[in-house]
Amino acid sequence: MSNNKGGHTGRNIALIAAAVLLVLGGILVYVKFKNKTTPSPAPIPGKDDKKDGGTEPVGYPISKGSQGAEVRRLQTALIRAFNTTILPVYGIDGIWGDEVSNALASKTLPTTIFIQDIQNIEKMPAYSPTKTYNYKTGDKVYAAVAKVLALGVAIDTNGAVHDNPSSNSFAYQNEWMGFVYSGKLTTQGYLLIKTKNNKFAKVKPDLVYPKND
Predict the structure, then answer these.
(1) Which residue from 24, 72, 111, 178 puts its CA 20 to 30 A from 8's CA?
(2) Could you report the per-residue pLDDT of 102-142, keeping only the tens digit for each?
């Protein structure tokens, strides 16, 4: 009887061990299968590739109608490379309207801008005037580009120049703006003129030209 009891006990232990191994094997197979079938994470919106197999940062590409930091970066790059005359009216306002589109078209640049396009513009040499003038007091001053912004100023009895933004006005290309008040540029690099309306204003010297009739 004792031998039969011992035999039964041994068989029970073997069955339990086999069951444990079977369960462990099943777990391993399940884990392996799950790892194979788990889908990859969905692409993050804005990170999908839009050009040349690379990835675009959030906010790109940009085009007409876009607004924000990406547009300001583009506008800053354009002005650095081509001067303020490339965006003569709105400048760096963070809004892509007709002025930005026209600026890009005038330089045969893409009308949909990816991050690489902006980086390419930023790598361009910084603008420097190709022609400089010697300004003399009394010279007539004419606008050299489509629109020139004349920043109004006030001059006190000590000769100090003070901004007066409410006097801002535009002059159109080749329009007479006034006379050179001082051939010496201000500390900010502006040319000081006395306008045809007998007011004082300052302009960027590379946007105008002098002429003595």
Answers:
(1) 24
(2) 999 988 899 999 999 999 999 887 776 545 567 888 888 88
CATH architecture of 43-128: Orthogonal Bundle (1.10)
What residue type is 139 in one-letter code? D
Correct CATH for 140-211 of 1.10.3470, 2.30.30, 1.10.8, 3.40.50:
2.30.30
- Alpha carbon of residue 33 to chain centroid: 47
Please give the helix or strand (H or E) that residue 203 lies within, else none.
strand 200-203
Enter the pTM of the model: 0.41
Q: What distance in Å separates the CA atoms of residue 51 and residue 112, rounded to the nearest whole number?
A: 11
- The CA distance from 159 to 165, in Å, is 18
Query: Cβ(175)–Cβ(142) under 8 Å?
Result: yes
Q: What angle do CA 62, 68, 71 make, to 5 degrees?
A: 45
39: its two tokens? 């889908």
Q: Scan for tokens 């884990």, then name that residue.
A: 31
Query: E strand or H helix at 181, and its extent?
Result: strand 176-182
